[in-house]
Amino acid sequence: MKLLTQYLWLCWFINNPADLTPTKSFMWKTVAFYLVSGCIVEGLIADPADGSLEVFLRTIMAFSSVGVLLLINKKWQYFNQLFTAIFVCENFIMTLATVTEGMYFLMVMKHYEYSEEVSIGIGVLLLGWYLAIVSYIFRQLLSYKMSASVLLAFSYFVLTYGLPMLVMDI
Asked: Under 8 Å CB-to-CB from 57, ≥6 apart: which residues?
């Protein structure tokens, strides 16, 4: 629980992922939670089979993009720390997105006039927060400048969410 708390502090831009050493068990639990929560969210949005396939493609892209980035920078030793930091924070944001989906459903059931605007607004806020977190992780772990970190975070998002979504639409 202490390790989880230390990783969750990254969501508030506290701690340095380079100072955190995940255990193998913690890393696999993080990936398992990512897969399960992603399948639940995608299952709520689209066909569960297609959604699950998209989540698995996102996972492959996440590992691949982190691996390629670290190989290019010759910092492979940070692989476990980087993917664990990103996945823990992504799991946190995904949990908040799931709560947002539930809240949207309740607002629709209660015929709240601005339910869609509220849901989209929270989604945009979560996306911005996600990009800021991933940028912070890249900046802390790989010592990039702010602009490069933001660009990498956006690129990571496009690779891990955009490409699998594109593949699924084909």
From this structure: 163, 164, 167, 168
